[in-house]
Amino acid sequence: MTKESQNLSHRSLDLVKRRSTINLIVVFLAFAIALASVYFTRIIVEQLKERELGIIQLYAKSLEFTVNNENSPSELAFIVRDVLYPNNSIPVIQTNGVGQVLGTRNVEIDQSLSDVEKEEFLKETLKEMKLEYDPIEIPFRNEKGEVFDYQYIYYKNSVLLNRLEYYPHVQLSVIAIFSIIAYIAFSYSKSAEQNRVWVGLAKETAHQLGTPISSLMAWVEYFKEDESLHNKEIIDELEKDIQRLEMITARFSNIGSVPVLNYENVPACVEATVSYLKKRISKKVEINISAKPSDIRARINKPLFDWVIENICKNAVDSMGGIGKIDINIKRAIDDKIIIDITDNGKGIQKSKIKDVFLPGYTTKARGWGLGLTLVKRIIEKNHDGKIFVRNTELNEGTTFRILLKG
Ligand SMILES: Nc1ncnc2c1ncn2[C@@H]1O[C@H](COP(=O)(O)OP(=O)(O)OP(=O)(O)O)[C@@H](O)[C@H]1O
Ligand SMILES: [Mg+2]
Questions:
Q1: Looking at the structure, do residues 279 and 230 belong to the same domain, yes or no?
Q2: Which domain range does residue 175 map to?
Q3: pLDDT confidence of residue 5
């Protein structure tokens, strides 16, 4: 490989690599943002929890103060109005020493329930509260200051705190769903745009080739009748070249429009392409075709299908450096699909590059464009509703490409 050619292939490889690096960076950033969001909400939740605990402790202390002291009416009014009453978010259940419910605050009880059901509901809520936090004890003292009884304040997180705890999860799920939809929409519009470029370019090429070809045909006819032209072989060669140009035009015009599919004998089509190819490749490459049965029909567009076989075989020839063997095996699968395996004994493809070979611009060749297999995949999948993939590949042993067509 010359220096220039190495640069060329590295450039296209770089393009593929750069794209996956950008994808990795985007995924990494998304994760970082998600983690940061969860982390900061956690901090806020912790701070709010501490504050709620403070409020509850103040609440308990105030209760303790009211029951253990002789309070003046104004003191009582202050405690009730400014301390006890403002707690309108934290659910609280107050019980006596033996666990009987004395009162509740911010616990929503369905008033349509019967008394028994209400009691049951309170028991359940109490259980929940016990699991969340230890209760706050309020000691009752006699005049001498001795404790003679206890009351307990059970509580749990306020609705606000609970919501805040779930919030980052909800937020992240919504963002994730939105991102997935945006990504699908974006890649769809991107592939639709690429599609238009492919189709437009192909159509235009076919169109532009049309005029010089008709002109050449007219010239050939003219020369055929020219008595003064002695070397008639020139005309035969010219006609072959025109046929080749017509084939190219047919391929471009087919890929530039919705191609017509006809039932064709697949082995016969492959045979025709191979015999055409054999004349143009090294004599040291042997190509064998086996088909069972010999007449396997599938709906294909002949000019495009020929292009597929030609591209895959040319790659196979390139992979073996001019000497080797290509086996083409055509058969019908049990599910009526048609299988075409093209096996070479060339240098194989690295396992990590198997997916890359179908990407536009991926090439390891000095004069390659990395478009052959992209075109092949497009023709098989978009135009024939089939499948193509690397079935098997071993370094320095060979590669098998498999095409699946609908029967
Ligand atoms: N049979 C094969 N054996 C080994 N490598 C292969 C084979 N077929 C394809 N490849 C690898 O896949 C790459 C892409 O193939 P593709 O046909 O798309 O482009 P290309 O042959 O490099 O250029 P061109 O656009 O001229 O076809 C090749 O450069 C080669 O590295
Ligand atoms: Mg190629």
A1: no
A2: 163-235
A3: 47
